[in-house]
Amino acid sequence: MEILMNTTIFVPGLSHFLVVSALLFSLGVMAVLSRRNVIMVLMGVELILNSANINLIAFSRFTELSLDGQMIGLFVIIIAAAEAAVALAIILNVYNRFNTINLDEINLLKG
Amino acid sequence: MVEQTLHSISLYLPEIVIVVTLCVIIVADLLVKGIKQVAAWIMLAGLFVSGFFVMLQTGTTDSIFYDMAAVDPFAVFFKVLLILTGIFIVLFSMKNTELEEYSTRIGEYYMLFAGMMLGMMMMAGATNLLLMFLALEVTSISSYVLAGYTKKSTRSSEGAMKYIIYGAVSSGIMLYGISLLIGVTASTDIYAINEALNAGTEQTLILNLSVLMIIVGLGFKIAVVPFHFWAPDVYEGSPITIAALLAVASKIAAFALLIRFFSVTFIDSAGLSVTGTWSSIEGIHWDVLLGGMAALAMIVGNLTALRQDNIKRMLAYSSIAHAGYILMGLVILTSEGLTSVMVYLFIYLFMNLGAFYVAILFMNKTGTESIEGYKGFGHRSPLAGVAMTIFLVSLTGLPPTGGFVAKLYIFGAAISAGWIWLVAIAGITTVISLFYYIRVVRNMYFFKPGESDEAITFDTTSKIILFALLIPTLLLGVYFQPVLEFARNSMLMFGF
User: Which of B176, B187, B317 to mutate to test the interface with A (most CBs of A within 10 A)?
Assistant: First the structure.
């Protein structure tokens, strides 16, 4: 066990974080592309933003970027909150007009 | 440290004025009940004061707030354009039947408008990836709400929803790209990033990927193919004043950001040369990639515009095509190319706002957005009809209008840089664009108005605004030297 814990694969390094964030990013893009419910699409967007955050914080821990990365992470959290608030307000309004939040059924504008 | 901050604040006055305007609008909206359109007047005053401070910055070249933003002739040029657009949009909004229905909460409209102006002005000056992203988001979040401002209309709600979904996804992807770029180069400042790239790095794959992702976010903002899906739906759904704002101001600001980002980050240590080089990152031919996007935008925008009946939708596709033409100047990345982009944007401002304004005037009087509904308007309102014809001819790019000069310069720059195939596509699509622009003119003049249709007359204010857009459009076709000089002198970016 002792030997296992000390092998390089098991010591968390930059690449581990980057892999996690890449997975999270892919899951977010998947959610955006495959889900038809607007709320689910927004969850996907949150995943994308948070994957970027993991990247930034990992870079600030392991490279000479230092605290800049964490600072950007803070700003991103604020932006994500503002965006989510605006998006939910708009979706609520859409629900009041269309009685649905399925993207396929909201299609007055096309051409 | 205090001195640096104070010095920065003295160079940041235009933006500060906009923030103060935003706050004053909120307070005035709550307290002042007697004066009509109080928010609009405050916004207008704020824009004029801010414009005055921008003018004071002419010739300054400085970096402020610890290299967060730059105050340079390049930023001043774009801020002037943005404030001009802002002033016109406020004037458009003051008399608009679409917005009158919501007159009790018009304060929100101007407040968000001020927020959007702030974001766009920050975009023009940002030299740090964090500030670039923040400015982009400030602009976007305000514009999402503005697109859905007429919330009783189903189309507006749908447009806003599509806008925020596409916008959030593309800015998320852009942020991921930024995080990779920051990580690989270990700096957030674009000059430092340029240095790190020139020093050479092994992470070519990640770098290419990150720049591609950043292009997604910026491409969305300028509405260039293949990131254009949102534009027609959002323009058609949102109030027409906001459609004009998105088509002109938001595009100008995004181009400022795009030009600054690419021309600072991508050039090699030799600086912005006459030939133009994209040599900092190996792997993808960035110029060919962007050239392809520009060509696609011209083709898709112009061909799809052919079969549109809604004037807003037609102008949306036309603005996609124009984004393609403008992007051509960036592809070349010579100082001549960038100058032609700036001249194009200057002229584009007047002609596109003009076309939108005539559409607004017709909509105020008759409520029609359909091009088929324009039949006989030329006879019913000779002035607006002639003005619309001139704006559309200018958008096509025929002499003696400003649009011709704009296209001439950008095509000339592209030819001298050797991009013959791109110019060929641009030329052919320009001819195609004539069909849909002239269709509006044909509908206005070649059909007699019905028996019951009365003449459409406008009040003096509308006429003055119309002439304020019409005269520059015509004048710039014959006397464009000052604009050219202005653009040439504004090429000086901080750090070169």
Answer: B176
